[in-house]
C-alpha cells in the first residue's frame, strides 16, 4: 500500500468511529467508506487493503485489548482516550499479527507514535511508545537490525493544497407559514447538512447549490453566509490537504426530497419542523449553524434553541 503513513490516518479515523459506535465489526466497511467519501480520494485497491486491515484489527480486538491491559496495568482500557486506544490497536496488530516483510516491527512502532503525535494529546506519543516498546521487547525485539525507510517529510501548513467545500442549512416556509429545516442523516446516527466539493470554475455558492440539488433534489437559493470552517484531511497522493468549508443558509420550496443514489455515508433525508430539531442527534458545528439560521429565519436574534447545543 503506497503512502502508508497517510493511509494509517484514514484507518485511525475509521477505527475511532467503530469504537465510539460500539465496536460493531459488521459496520466497519460503512465507517471506512464514510471516511473515504467525506475526506479522502483513494483507489479501489487501497480501499480494499484498508478494509481488510480494519476488519482484521476488529477480529483481533479482544486479544489486542487484553495485551494493552497487561502492558499498562495502571491504565484500564476505558480510561485510555479513544484515539490512543486505536493507535495502540493499529500498532499492536502490525507488531504481532502483521506481515513483517511489508511492515517491519520498528516501522509499526514508529508510525504508531507519529499517529499519536498528530491526533492524540500532548503525552500520547510517549504513552504509545512505552506500551509498544514494552511489547516489542517482550517478544524478543524481532527485526531489531532492519533499516527503516525515510519518513514522508512534514508539509508546512501554508504549503498544503486547498480544497473548497460548500454546505447549506436548507429551510422552507409552506403556505401556512410553517418553517421546516431539511437535513440528511449519516451512518453514525447524526442528522447533518448536505455538503460537497466545489468544482473548478464554480463559485462556492454555485457549487453548494449544485451539491444540494444532486444530493437531495432540493433547489435552493442562497440567503446568506453563515460561517466558515477549516480542517486537514490526508490524501494518499497529495498528502495533507486543507479542507475549507463555507456554510450557507439556503431557501427551498417545501418539496419531497430524494437521497442521491450511492450517497456514501448517508442513509436518509427529510424535513423537520423547528420544534422537532431539539430531539435530533446533531454535531456541534451543525448545531451552531442551525442556531444562526433560526435567528435569521425568524428575524429574532434572541431566538435560540439551547437544546441544540446538548446534542453532541
What does this structure look like?
The protein is of the alpha+beta class. It contains ten helices and seven strands. The chain folds into two domains: 4-138, N-utilizing Substance Protein B Homolog, Chain A (Orthogonal Bundle), CATH 1.10.940; 159-310, Nucleoside Triphosphate Pyrophosphohydrolase (Alpha-Beta Complex), CATH 3.90.79.10. Strands 1, 2, 3, 4, 5, 6 and 7 form a seven-stranded mixed sheet that branches. Helix 1 crosses helix 2, helix 1 (4-20) crosses helix 3 and helix 2 (28-39) packs antiparallel against helix 3 (44-59). The protein is elongated. The model is unreliable at 147-152 and 301-312 (pLDDT under 50).
List descriptors.
alpha+beta; N-utilizing Substance Protein B Homolog, Chain A; Nucleoside Triphosphate Pyrophosphohydrolase; 7-stranded mixed β-sheet; 10 helices; disordered C terminus
Number of helices: 10
Q: Tell me the Rg in angstroms.
A: 22 Å
Query: What's the N-to-C terminus distance?
Result: 35 Å
Residues in helices, as a percent range: 40-55%
Record the SSE blueprint.
Elements: H1 4-20, H2 28-39, H3 44-59, H4 61-71, H5 82-96, H6 105-119, H7 124-138, E1 162-173, E2 179-186, E3 191-192, E4 194-197, H8 204-216, E5 220-235, E6 239-252, E7 266-273, H9 274-277, H10 284-298
Parallel strand pairs: 1-6
Antiparallel strand pairs: 1-2, 1-4, 2-3, 2-7, 5-6
Helix pairs in contact: 1-2, 1-3, 1-5, 2-3, 4-5, 5-6, 5-7, 6-7
